[in-house]
Amino acid sequence: MLNKDSLICIGYISRPHSYKGEIQLTLERKIVSLKRGDFLFIKIQGQYIPYKILLIKGKSEEPVLQFEFITTYELAQEICANEVYTDTEVLPEESELSFVGFEVIDKHLGTIGIVEDVHELPKQIMLLVKYNGEIKYIPLAEDFIDYISADNKEIWLTLPSGLLDI
Question: Which range of residues forms the domain containing residue 13?
Answer without folding.
Answer: 4-90
